[in-house]
Amino acid sequence: MEINVNQNNLEQSGSPYLRQHAKNPVHWQEWNSDVLDEAKRLNKPLLVSIGYAACHWCHVMARESFMDEKVAAYMNEHFMCIKIDREERPDLDQIFMEASQMINRSGGWPLNAFALPDGRPFHAGTYYPTHNWMQLLQQIKNLYETRYNDVLKQAEMLTEGISSHNITPIAQLKPEKDALNLFNDYTANIRKYTDRNGGLSGAPKFPMPVVWENLLLHYYLTHDITSLTAVTAALKAMMYGGIFDQVGGGFSRYTVDANWKIPHFEKMLYDNGQLVSLYAHAYQISGNNMYIRTISKTLDFIERELMDENGGFYSSLNADSEGEEGKFYVWSFDELRKMLSDEEFTLIEQFCSITKEGNWEDGKNIIHFKPQEVESFLRKEDPDDEKYELTESALKKIFDAREKRIHPTTDKKHILSWNAIMLKGYNDAYRATGYPHYLDVAKRNAIFLKENGILKDGRVLHSFIENSTPIDGFLEDYAFMASAFTMMYEVTFEKIWLETAGRVLHHALTHFYDVETGLFFFTRKETDHQIARKHEITDHVIPSSNAELGIALLKAGTLLDDEKLLTASKNMAAHTESLLSSDTYYYSNWAILSALHANGLNEVAVMGELALKGSKKMMQKFHPDYLYAGGTYENLPVLKNRYQKGKTVFYVCRNKACDLPVETPEEALEIMLREFGE
Question: By Cβ atoms counted within 10 A, which residue in 140, 152, 215, 384 is the most buried?
């Protein structure tokens, strides 16, 4: 394919982020083999700039440097300039981010890297002010021209580091001797990373939902109240803090401070999906109706801002509007006083730290609550307390005023893994609350994903947007899709969802499996791997795709009684002994996988015309080690010979052996509790 690299070629890109840079005077190209071949022909180093549509500092650097004619001219003359949307190409982002971390011991976005024409990186950094950026460009240009051998050695060293892994071959792994003790020790170690503000220590402060999911599982299995206390502290701090949009619902990506008050305002689909699941699980345990309020406001936001007419979910909402970070969300003292009644304003001023000077920048205020002062009336513990109604009335007025402002832009990509995370969030919300609307939305999204994101052979896409070529799926798409569709079966008893999950998992086994380690590569074996084929092991803001796949293999394999899936999951769990011995919280999803294997998964079979009604009641309790199957057809191994005409019966099963059937969900729950030792 002929390309003109002497012009900006992003206008026709499918990525909204790349199109944001289409008017830059920089001659940006998309990453592809033709561009790399042209760089080799011209012997130009690559300048690879990676970001995403909702990234505030990406926009800042674009305004300061990439729109500057002088800077752009220098970049165009001496580099082959490539723009990458990290959400579309997490495989490339992973590689260049690892280079940055090897060089700087840190990373972030925008991520700006320099590489040889064949793609091997030799330098990387993040945001640079214009003066520093120009200095760096000149230094890199001179190094490449006068000390090429040094540049080559650096690229070779980085590539070797990126390509290497410390994963033990599956043949050398020994069976875990005491996996539950290892899980307990690892989880106890995680708690030392929490602080009195709730959540993980330090700043910036990210939600990291998988950490708290691990602690909830630990509480469930051990009754260790310290784990539940740590989760409760984190959830309360987040839902009352500035990271949660108290006016319109939904969580921002992180806060810049250690107290959850000052958000970095972009909102990501994957955060909100995971947090809905987390709050749903916490509600199943505690019955705290503030968790329901948080779920409800979050899903209202999702449906209002991030859901299309076909049931698909968009990827993110920008941090900026009108060129300013957070402008859509913040208020002056006088703005609030004018729009609210005296009673409403007095309450908001008292409980939300609103001041004339502002609690943020430039005299502006972010609305967040003081947890210790508002929880009693927001939970409506006193029916005669008017503060709840006044608070909700004030927030509604602020919301209505805010709706008249210019909104942040939406990145309308459909990312399959993120959609699956949100699908799971809706299913968890339905299980916890029983609200039929949540199941209706989940069904629409599941149908959308099945029809648009999964091919007949089980191949999964990663992302697509209208009028663009879809991008092939990565391991995260297979893992989260299989997890979500398995749960979709549990809440509907429609076998098509479980069969689809099984097909996706078998495709992953064929195209992603690493025979040597028993783990899975992040990319398909058919992919053109320019630099390295990686395993994604650690949890980040999205949990480890390998661990998630291991969980999906275990759950779908158990319901389908598919030995191939179960063996693959068991082989993956064999790696947890070395991982959970690490002093870090970045293996929380592996801890969950290890505990589920060590404790064992149980099944509840519900057969009869009222099967869904009965299972719905049971699912309102938190039992993460139980899977649900049922309906009126004996179409799974656990359902064989279970149907009794004219009755709805419940079987509680463990290790393929079931208790005698009972006829009410309450009796079945009693058996589950008895088996658990409660």
Answer: 215
**d(C-alpha 6, C-alpha 390), whole Å:** 60
| 8-state DSSP, 461 | E
Which residues in the chain come in under a pLDDT of 50? 677-678
Structure tokens at 671: 């058996």
Spatial CA neighbour of 112 closest among 27, 178, 26, 46: 46
Long-range contacts (CB closer than 8 Å, 24 or more residues apart) made by 380-386: 380/289
Instruction: Sort strands 649-654 and 471-472 into parallel, antiparallel or unpaired.
Output: unpaired
The secondary structure of 95-149, three-state, reads: HHHHHHHHHHCCCCCCEEEEECCCCCEEEEECCCCHHHHHHHHHHHHHHHHHCHH
* Beta-bridge mates of residue 654: 602, 657
Q: How far is CA 77 from the centre of its chain?
A: 39
Task: Give residue 98's pLDDT.
Answer: 93
For 518: left if phi > 0, alpha if psi spans -120 to 50, otherwise beta; the answer is left
Sign of CA dihedral 162, 414, 54, 396: negative
Where are the chain's structural domains?
16-163, 171-327+410-599, 331-403, 602-676
Would you tell me the crossing angle of helices 179-190 and 209-222 to the nearest 10 degrees? Answer: 130
C-alpha 131/C-alpha 657 separation (Å) is 70
Indicate the fold that domain 171-327+410-599 takes in CATH. Answer: Glycosyltransferase (1.50.10)
Cis peptide before 209 (omega within 30 of 0): no
Backbone torsions φ then ψ of 146, nearest 5 degrees: -110, -20
CATH number for the domain running over 16-163: 3.40.30.10
The four Cα atoms 673, 296, 591, 269 give a dihedral, to 10 degrees, of 150
What distances in angstroms separate CA 48 from CA 112, 416, 522, one per listed residue?
A: 6, 25, 21
Structure confidence by residue, pLDDT tens digits, 124-139: 999 999 999 999 999 9
Specify the pLDDT at position 675.
Answer: 63
- From residue 592, how far is each of 20, 280, 598 by CA, in Å? 40, 17, 10
**Distance from the first to the final alpha carbon of the chain:** 67
171-327+410-599 and 602-676 have identical folds = no
Burial letters 460-478, b for 16+ CB under 10 A, else e: bbbbbbeeeeebebbbbbb
* Ramachandran quadrant class, 59 (left: phi over 0; alpha: psi -120 to 50; beta: rest): alpha
The residue assigned the tokens 């409760």 is: 232
Task: Map residue 294 onto helix, strand or coil.
Answer: helix
Cβ-contact 330, 363 below 8 angstroms: no
CB-neighbour burial class of residue 323 (10 A; exposed 0-12, middle 13-18, buried 19+): exposed
- CATH for the stretch 602-676: 3.40.30.10
Which DSSP category does 224 fall into? -
- Please give the Cα distance from 316 to 323 (Å, whole number): 17
From residue 325, give the alpha-carbon distance in Å to each of 13, 44, 50, 413: 25, 35, 20, 22
Instruction: Specify the pairing of strand 602-607 against strand 626-631.
Output: parallel
- The whole-number pLDDT of residue 678 equals 45
Q: Which residues, in sequence order, are bridge partners of residue 61?
A: none
Total Cβ atoms within 10 A of residue 247: 21
Residue 673 is predicted with a pLDDT of: 86
**Angle ∠(377,266,355) on CA atoms, nearest 5:** 50
Identity of residue 301: F
Both tokens of 49, joined, read 């700039």
